[in-house]
Amino acid sequence: MTTITVDDIGTFVALGGTFGAHRSASSIHRDERPRWPPNLWTVPRTAIVPDGATIELRPYAEQVTIGPEPVAVIGSPLDRADVNEAAAAIAGFTVSNDLAALGEFPAFPYPDQETHSGRGFKIMPGFSPLLETVTDIELDSFGDRAIEAEIDGERVVEGSTDEIDWSPAEIVAHVSKIVPLEPKDVVSLGEPSTEHHYIDEATSVTCRVDGIGELTNAVRRVD
Question: pLDDT: is 108 or 24 the higher one?
Fold first, then answer.
């Protein structure tokens, strides 16, 4: 078990639509499994919040949803890797909370356009909490791990790593064809939520992946 800090991370890559149930629940995705994960974006350093730090919700951030995700931590450089190369480069796993603001601003400019794909919203400060503890597990034991989220102690999300439509190595290999990866980069693998659970009035949120870790942050609204 090692640690990774915000300053260690060069590139934070996040993906959406990797869980079939989450994809089906979103009107921007179709039910069938696509050839590769449908959404990918990067997260700036100002958006990353360490475990135990406070998530500060800006006045314009409304209908903010929680999103527990397992995260692959990269241990060696990858560029256009195949699955075997990607598997060898994964140094361990940690946990993130993929927050998204679904409110009117900063939404897309078209009234009928979905706002919860995450694109663009990770420019908002403090919207990607990340557990700094990295757990080394064998890739063949990644499956069948519970993924959960709690808001003020109430469990609101339950899922499993078995529900991801691609293996961690397949996802990391795909990402490396778009974004070259370096040691201590992180790839957030998606979340299983099928409903929106808002943290606007919350005081604390927790995201947990069995055998990997637990990420807890206080929440407060700022002017």
Answer: 24
